[in-house]
Design goal:
The structure is a single chain. The chain has helices at residues 2-26, 52-66, 71-93, 97-113, 149-167, 175-190, 201-222, 231-248, 253-259, 261-276, 289-295, 300-318, 323-354; strands at residues 30-32, 46-48, 120-122, 128-130, 135-140, 143-148. The longest helix is centred in the C-terminal third of the chain and has 32 residues, at 323-354. The N and C termini lie far apart (59 Å). The chain is 66% helix and 7% strand. GO terms for molecular function: metal ion binding; phosphotransferase activity, for other substituted phosphate groups. Keywords: Cell membrane, Magnesium, Membrane, Metal-binding, Transferase, Transmembrane, Transmembrane helix. It is found in: Cell membrane.
Length: 355
């Protein structure tokens, strides 16, 4: 069944992307580097945007076909629709990053309201850390609800973080859909090891393979030279969905940290760097890890493949490593990546000083 849903999602995404490219050009839904410069964009010329639309449609239709609707599934679909709408509006109007951030928070609150949450996380030293001790009963429209203050707040923060963190790693052709598809497959495989919410482990795996198929079906049009960009919709949906997958089976946040270690560390370093330079952490710039690799002469194909391979390697590692081992692996990657970025910046600075 996972292979069937993957194939259906892949095919639908692939088929929906071509007419999306046509409509984007027709409606001038494009990014033209000659008319408007963007500090983080690496492409040249006029490229259609709106890649989130075919990805979402593939996800929506495949989910409706293969997964029985329940409260959490409906919440995911509704929140995902809101996210792709925000993404498409941003692709066309270039919304304020602060407005996008507020939308991320509200959409995360929406899906948490449908029952998604993190009542506990696995401790790297064994056992679990309970997050559902502080409860607030609430009656809404005649129905009794319970707010798990710490669990729900952590889930909201986590979803907002993954939404933005993954979206930042879409700077070169093919980069995003490749590593997102690979990460989703491994999160699906690992979902079989844990207790889940009001959605069976089997359906969590199906959701994972649907997401993987939607992004990998989009990849042929986004690989170098890209014919369409994922846009904010495609990037934000990727992070939002991976964040959801990582908490649908309790205890997989550590696994997601390892699989997505490069985008995660890049995002943390970027925020620290911007604050240190007295810049807004929300404002885009040329300073992400993929930008550093471009600066030292790496091509777009090589950068994309690098992200895919790293995600694949850590995905395989996550199948065998336990909690503390994952923490050690993540810490090692963090140190190596930060050292690498510092060395690149130093070499670049030395080059400019000589010039």
């Amino acid at each position: 069944m996972p292979y069937i849903v993957f194939a259906v999602s892949f095919l639908l995404s692939f088929l929906f992307t071509r007419p999306t490219i046509y409509l984007a050009k027709k409606l001038d839904f494009v990014t033209d580097s000659k008319k408007k410069t963007h500090p983080a964009h690496t492409h040249k010329g006029k490229i259609p945007r709106g890649g989130g639309a075919p990805i979402f449609l593939a996800f929506l239709l495949t989910t409706l076909l293969f997964i029985p609707p329940n409260k959490i599934v409906v919440g995911i679909l509704l929140a995902s629709f809101c996210m792709v709408v925000v993404g498409l509006l941003d692709d066309y109007f270039d919304l304020s990053p602060y407005g996008r951030f507020i939308a991320n928070v509200l959409i995360s609150v929406l899906v948490i309201g449908f029952g998604l949450g993190i009542p506990f996380v696995s401790s790297p030293f064994g056992g679990v850390i309970r997050l559902d001790q502080w409860k607030i009963p609430l009656e809404l429209f005649g129905t009794q609800h319970t707010i798990l203050v710490v669990a729900d707040l952590l889930a909201i923060i986590w979803l907002v973080w993954t939404t933005n963190m993954v979206n930042w790693s879409k700077g070169v052709d093919g980069q995003l859909p490749g590593f997102v598809g690979i990460a989703a497959i491994f999160l699906g495989l690992l979902s079989q090891r844990f207790i889940t919410h009001d959605i069976s482990a089997q359906y969590v795996m199906l959701l994972s393979f649907i997401i993987a198929g939607a992004y990998l079906g989009f990849l042929p049009y986004n690989r170098y030279p890209q014919k369409i960009m994922p846009g904010y919709g495609g990037g934000a949906l990727a992070g939002f969905w991976l964040g959801i997958l990582s908490i649908l089976s309790f205890g997989k946040i550590g696994t997601a940290l390892l699989i997505l270690s490069v985008p995660m560390i890049d995002a943390v370093y970027t925020i620290i760097r911007r604050i240190k330079n007295k810049q807004s952490p929300f404002r885009a710039d040329w300073g992400h890890f993929h930008h550093k690799l471009l600066d030292i002469g790496w091509g777009r194909r090589r950068i994309a493949v690098f992200y895919w391979i790293v995600t694949l390697v850590f995905g395989i590692a996550s199948l065998f490593l336990e909690g503390l081992e994952k923490l050690i692996a993540f810490s090692t990657v963090a140190i190596l990546l930060v050292v690498f970025i510092i060395v690149i910046e130093q070499l670049k600075q030395n080059h400019f000083n000589k010039v």
